[in-house]
Amino acid sequence: MDVRLFEVSPRDGLQNEAAVVPTREKVRLIQALVASGLRDVEVTSFVRADRIPQLADAADVLAALPESSDVRFWALVPNTRGFERAHAAGIRCVSTVLSASETHNQRNINSTVRESLSALGRILSDAKAEGLRTRAYISTAFGCPYEGAVDPSRVVDLALALTAAGADEIALGDTVGVATPPGVVDLVRRLEAAGIPPESVAMHLHDTLGMALVNALAAWQVGIRSFDGAVAGVGGCPYAPGAAGNACTQDLVHLFEGLGAETGVDLDRLGEAGLLLGASLGRTLPGRYHQWWAGRRPTNGARSVG
Length: 306
Ligand code: MG
What we know:
This protein is α/β, with parallel strands linked by helices. It has helices at 9-13, 23-35, 58-64, 80-88, 102-109, 113-129, 152-165, 181-193, 212-221, 249-258, 267-281, 288-296, and strands at residues 4-7, 40-45, 72-76, 93-99, 133-139, 169-173, 201-204, 226-229. It has an eight-stranded parallel barrel, surrounded by seven helices. Bound molecules: magnesium ion.
């Protein structure tokens, strides 16, 4: 595998949807994603059910998934309680999240960045002591909806602290979708200069301004080989006109396969997973490759909402 796609639709996609998808449909989606060749899938978040009711069934989803030696199922653990629940549910791979900007962290996680860092540091070191795989998201790594530009040296400092605490991988989140290629290249190079090589960094891009693929290409050119995607580009707020979601996994596969890099993902099978998700949500999903593919697909009578 030359490029690793890290699928976030069951977590990052569904948490932003008004609809609550039944557990069995989530499990079917995750199985379809795995059948397409994806080997890293973030399946849920152990967040408080009153905060994100869409993911209240985290332990049930995990329990319904088959153990597999070659597929990594990830869960986001926003805090210590979430980590305890995920651990009790038998998770092997955990991700944590904080924001690079103070205001976004306050609004999203309700604590200061310093408080988050110390809480997540304990989770990451406990997770490593238990032999788990770990990743740490740094949200608003390229810009904050409240504060605007984010100082890249702040992101580097956070990445160093999270790595020292036990993060195997840093996922740089372009939460607002405002990154541009020079900013991506600059941050990757700064991290490398500080001792965090591109192999330990993943890009979590958003397509709000249509820049996800350009930024992915820029990151690939400076050595990044791990990219987060959501099938069919799910993840934007359906009630915010013009808002776009996560980088569409099919768009990323199409880009990298076009560059001659192997992803291990079958685009037709991934498209079918996207149709399943569209049917669960009852709407047409925005990903560009997904819409193009769905439009060309033989309909043979019954056609799913996709
Ligand atoms: Mg996202």
